[in-house]
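Homework help board

Subject: predicted structure for assignment chain

Our instructor gave us this sequence and asked us to write out the predicted structure in token form, then describe one feature. I got the tokens but I'm not sure how to describe them. Can anyone check?
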Amino acid sequence: MSQQASSVRDHLNLVAKLADLKEDHYRILLTLSAVTELLIDKGLITRQELELKTAALDTELDDLIVASLHPMG
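My token output:
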């Protein structure tokens, strides 16, 4: 098999893996959305609580990323 054919095959495999990841990502988001809506519908959480928690986790993650990029700062 030529190097060009091998490169094309590798590219196609990568594209197929990416498509699989996108499908998995979609399914995970769909499930998470359904669970979130059920929790809100049942009154176990409010949208405001969810938004506040999401913002807090986002800030925490940003802080961790910055700390890992600048460990001595």
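Reply (TA_rk): Your tokens look well-formed. For the description, you could write something like this. The chain has a mean pLDDT of 93. That's the kind of observation they're looking for.
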